[in-house]
Specification:
13% of the residues lie in helices and 21% in strands. The chain is of the alpha+beta class. It is globular.
Amino acid sequence: MRIIACAGLAVVAILAVPSLRAQQPQTDDEGQPIRPSVQVGVPAGGRGAAPARPAPPKPPSKPTPRWPDGKPILGRAPSEKTGTWGACCGSLANDKTTPFQPWAKAMFAYRADNQFEPHTRCHPSGGARQFVTPYGSEWVEFPDIKEMMIFDIGGPHTFRIIYMDGRAHPKDLKPSYYGHSVGHWEGDTLVVDTVGFNERFWMDRRGSPHTEQLHYIERFTRPDHDTLKYQATIDDPGAYTATWTSDTFSMTWNPTAELFEYVCQQNDQAPELMVGTLGSVSRSEVIVP
């Protein structure tokens, strides 16, 4: 019995040696203890997330594309397969400096809380509102017939024509959503003069009011390949006490996007844009533009 007991103690002692060795601190070549690397706040056995790398700097834009006569190309260049301009121009007017007539200022304030915007019910929108259309817009230029067309991608299948042949506005225009636009170049800036608007749309996304007396002047400048600057001057004696000019907005070029079919139907639901909430909307109400 004693022999067996002694043998058992010897076995236990032998098995315990590796465990005791494992508990001894490891040392380096100089005999100094090696301390394990510990990250504060990281669970044992885990690794912290690698620090975020800064985004690579955006490469500089290419130069402004031009036609053989030196005029800037505002749409895609002949060598490009696709390309559209992104949205811009949320609000032309503001509460502090815009010279509203009293009724127009009251309408501007009302529309901030009651967004019954015709655009959300698939109606075309002239002025700056055209460039806030979802998915941007596509410019198509026809130098041989001296016309430009602007197509809304996310709108009610509409387009606008800018005549570049030097013609004047017709005398008896029937008011329309886009009016009648004629353009000319002032250096590298395209100046577009438009009259003949109806009152059935909002002039911008914020709802700046206008009347059929609106004379709308736009300036488009493409300082480089990826940027299109936009500014508007509003002359509307029916809604404002003086002519005024908006801030300058920017549209960004998307080289991989192109015009596609966008279904916009009268029964589309867009309650947030109409009344400012996600609640239901009665479509039996009279639309107040």
